[in-house]
Design a protein that fits this description.
By secondary structure, the chain is an alpha/beta fold. The chain is 49% helix and 15% strand. It is built from 15 helices and eight strands. The protein has helices at residues 32-35, 39-49, 75-89, 101-111, 134-146, 148-159, 165-178, 181-193, 197-200, 220-229, 250-261, 279-289, 294-301, 305-319, 324-334, and strands at 2-6, 9-17, 21-26, 53-58, 93-98, 116-122, 207-212, 234-238. An eight-stranded mixed sheet has the order 1-2-4-3-5-6-7-8, with helices on both faces. Helix 5 (134-146) packs antiparallel against helix 8 (181-193) and helix 12 crosses helix 15.
Length: 337
């Protein structure tokens, strides 16, 4: 565990793994020590950290970062905390911004392109008021403020829909151990208040946007919107409902991230880049990268679903990747798009 000054505040952060630094930030609550109780989180860290130095931090006022002080809730303060961690890393980093942490990562990447190698966004959004209706947002904030025990269970249902009762109970304890009721309300209100739409067109670093199709916390369409606003961004849809990336099909997610970062083991055949893909296969690959299903690709190109599926299978074979997500991420890295 390390502690770094962010102005008058202190940021607690920890690093694990070996290789180029990947700074992971996000989610409306967090606690470095409590995270490690979750075996799925430890596995997720291992999948990314075997080739990267994965850096995770608590924002001031939460977890181990200046816990007695007020909670950081403004976007400017969130970016300042992230900036302190990047400076402490001492070199150019890649960023993994999850959920509301994606807003801070996008704002930082837009302002400091010289410090960011690559940007990965997961379960992200550009404007917080689009996450839910005003009535739904107000109701949830009121519930969390009045009945933090009940509110934490509602949030557990949103974040971990596939969890067992025991896992949800543990996540309830995690939330209440990370934030008081007052800080929980302020943290959720900040999630809804963030708006980075004006920053996205200025992002110059290579960007990968991932989003689970049935995410119950942040709607899938908001991730698609982020990808359309960032020049050259690659959008990779993932199956699943869980909002936390280390739950559900974490393997597909980490394969796509590793491929994009260049940290994954290259398994394609020598000489496999662009020349081996036909013009039609490149057309299909571009649509895969946009998040289209086989059915949608078939309608777009006027071909059968079977033919679209066969093209996708051939593309994966030629690129030497095991999933659609990895194919899209690899294509962006190799300049095939």
């Amino acid at each position: 565990m390390r502690f770094t000054a962010a102005g008058a505040r202190t940021v607690a952060w920890a690093a694990a793994g070996a290789g180029p630094p990947l700074v992971v930030g996000g989610w409306w609550c967090g606690h470095l020590e409590l995270d490690w109780r979750d075996p799925l989180f430890r596995r997720f860290t291992g999948l990314l950290g075997d080739r990267c130095t994965l850096i995770r931090y608590d924002r001031p006022g939460a977890g181990l970062s200046d816990p007695a002080g007020p909670l950081v809730t403004s976007l400017a303060d969130e970016v300042a905390a992230l900036s302190a961690v990047v400076d402490a890393a001492g070199e150019k980093v890649s960023l993994f911004g999850g959920s509301s942490g994606g807003c801070a990562a996008m704002a930082y990447a837009a302002a400091h392109p010289d410090r960011v190698e690559r940007l990965v966004l997961y379960g992200s959004y550009a404007r917080g008021t689009e996450i839910a209706t005003a009535e739904a947002r107000d109701s949830l904030l009121a519930l969390v403020g009045r009945h933090w025990g009940v509110g934490s269970r509602i949030l557990a249902d949103l974040f971990l829909p596939t969890a067992t009762p025991a896992e949800r109970d543990e996540f309830v304890r995690f939330q209440r151990g990370s934030l008081t009721a007052e800080k929980a309300v302020r943290s959720l209100a900040a999630v809804y208040a963030f708006d980075v739409r004006d920053r996205l067109a200025t992002i110059e670093v290579p960007t990968l946007v991932l989003h689970r199709r049935d995410d119950r916390a942040i709607p899938f369409a908001l991730g698609q919107d982020v990808a359309t606003r960032i020049p050259g961004a690659t959008f990779v849809p993932l199956d699943g409902t869980d909002h936390l990336p280390w739950r559900g099909d974490a393997d597909s997610l980490t394969r796509a991230v590793r491929e994009f970062l260049g940290a994954g083991r290259r398994v394609r055949r020598a000489g496999a880049p662009r020349g081996e893909l036909s013009g039609r296969e490149l057309d299909v690959l571009r649509l895969v990268a946009q998040g289209l299903s086989d059915q949608e690709i078939a309608r777009r190109l006027g071909i059968s679903v079977h033919t679209a599926h066969r093209h996708v299978s051939n593309i994966r074979g030629k690129l030497g990747v095991s999933s659609r997500a990895a194919a899209a991420a690899h294509a962006a890295t190799a300049g095939l798009l």
